Amino acid sequence: MTDFNTELDARGLNCPLPILRTKKAMTSMAAGDVLKIVATDPGSVKDMEAYAKQTGNELVASSENNGEYTFYIKKN
């Protein structure tokens, strides 16, 4: 399991809400902090990858289990 500083529950939210909430949560975090996001929207997989590339943050890990997608993004 990956260590994280903050957790965001985006289950039940559809695009674009998971990524918008992720952006908002990341603004209050310090460099090096890790945000754990749990979402149920399958579109969030590509959204989180694109978000990490566009912002320069690191997508540390991602996984899927029974329709729940978990992401760990490290703020740079």
Series of secondary-structure elements, N-terminal to C-terminal:
EHEHEE
How can the largest sheet be summarized? 4 strands, mixed
Strand order of the largest sheet: 1-2-4-3
Per DSSP E runs of 2 or more residues, the count of β-strands stands at 4
Distance between the termini: 20 Å
Beta-strand fraction estimate = 25-35%
Structural class: alpha+beta
The parts where pLDDT drops under 50 for at least 5 residues are none
Helix content: 25-40%
Molecular shape: globular
In DSSP terms (H or I, runs of 4 or more residues), the helix count works out at 2
**Rg over CA atoms:** 11 Å
Question: Whole-number average pLDDT?
Answer: 96
Please provide a written account of the structure.
There is one protein chain. With 76 residues, the chain is α+β, with helices and mostly antiparallel strands. Helix content is 30%, strand content 34%. It is built from two helices and four strands. It has a four-stranded mixed sheet with strand order 1-2-4-3, with helices on one face. The longest helix has 12 residues, at 44-55.
Briefly say what this structure is:
The chain has 76 residues and is of the alpha+beta class.
Compile the SSE list and pairings.
Elements: E1 6-10, H1 17-27, E2 34-39, H2 44-55, E3 58-65, E4 68-74
Parallel strand pairs: 1-2
Antiparallel strand pairs: 2-4, 3-4
